[in-house]
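Q: Two folds, back to back.
A: First:
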Amino acid sequence: MAIVAIASPKGGVGKTTSTIALGGLLAQSQSCLAVDLDPQGNLTMGFGIEMEKDQIGSYDVMTRQETPEEPIIETEMGLHILPTDSTLAKAENEISEDPKRFFVLKEQLKSLQTRYTNILIDCPPNMGLLTLNALAAADAVLVPVQCQYYSLRGLDRLFDEISDIRKTYNLRLRLLGVLPTMAENTLMTRRVLKELKKRHHQVTIFKPVPKSIQFAEASFVGQPIHRFSRNRKLIEPYERVIRAIAPQTQNTPKEYLL
């Protein structure tokens, strides 16, 4: 079982969009679970799931009131999802005094080891306790970065934090790479991509995901991009990331890098 956290302390960089796209593609050939660990619940809604009042989800798993098997929902495309809603926000406070508070998710996911080939975790846009739980449980972390100059600020700090988490909580955690998102055919995007490669030459930089209204339209109807659009330019960047996730292709071919 490979566990990948999709994380960034900045909002609006494409974490949820990327999780939906990757989950949908992985579910075509492998068993895959998408975990919504963001109290905004956008991943849940992005798959067309509306949480009902008192429906169990990530909150119940993180507070150990339920095992993860109980709230899992299977989508019509075969992808499974651990849904959430705004009640998840209370979980951080409720487990904050727990001596094992950084490892709740890791312990809860152990029972799913033989059930799924891949687990994707959509993290909230901060480095709080929920994100730390995701990184403590993950084998790898994918960092989406919007193709804007201000998005480059803080990457060094984020990489340092990931390194600290690896040393302190999760020795197996690796940086899968950086995924540039919302790329446009502009001088600004080209400069940002050049600067990103220059500053972080030791990090895998995947080819960028183009900016397109079709991502929002796909989420509106609860579909991953490959089931909504025939535009290969929108789908291919995520297929390339999967090459780095899937166990049978551990090394990403050079043509899939920036």
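A: Second:
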Amino acid sequence: MFNKLIAATLPYMPKKLVWIFSKRYIAGETISDAVRESKKLNDQGIKVTVDLLGEFIKNLDEATENKEAYLEIIETFEANKIDGNYSVKPTFFGLLLDEEVCYQNIRTVVAKAAEYNNFVRIDMEDSPCVDKEISIFRRLKKEFPKNVGLVVQAYLKRTLNDLNNMMDMQNGVSKLNYRLCKGIYVEPEEIAYKKYEEINEHFLKDLDFMFKNDVYPGIATHDKPLVDGAYKLIEKYNVPKDKYEFQMLYGVTPELRKSIVEKGHTMRVYVPFGKDWFGYSTRRLKENPKMASLIIKALFNRG
């Protein structure tokens, strides 16, 4: 109860206090911060995907600025020879303001990544965005078959059907590539599973579908039962280690992450950075209120 109270009040706390919690989960505010932390991860044998924080913009000028920022990120990361790719949120590029403008902005980013034979992941957002984001993915996949992927969310009841419907894009030139995560947005019970056991069950069903259909999954979880379930499916289908990867958030469950790497599996860490870290931080804490205890410990350590 105490942790939930902290999580609920966090958006109203001073930013300096929130940063005590946030700095563990965010690479920093600048590109140089993200490059530095990405290099550290690369040195540990871990790949990255970089994300500039921010979403749900208010005007299309912001969308243009965000596009230009991502072009700079790509040039900087490639110049620094970072072993990683790029994650984008469509609302950050104008999805809820003008879908075509959003598509063109993301297309420009994907085209830049493709110049370096690299890859852009389209993040999945809340349910009103899902069909629009699948549509954008379809268009980009047709033009850039090897350079774009999508996120799917196991807690949405529609996901397995979506996976099946998108199989028409699978071909010998380029496999479908999805990040499979549980999902973090608050959705009505009519469209989303709510219970921990239910969500985990459908996560593994979605992963099973991907392995059976030769889809490349990014297995994005910090939940040990799901990691163990993924191991069992990998063994069941005898999946080669270059046909999947595990993914985790920066700063979360480092010991579990280390154990996966030590077993020889590919690991990719989602590295968020940027000045708009406050909203990301409060959402992370609402998603996992138990982390509120870290704030309290940090306060006492400062004292």
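Q: And?
A: The beta strands are 47-52, 84-88, 120-122, 148-153, 177-181, 216-220, 245-249, 267-273.
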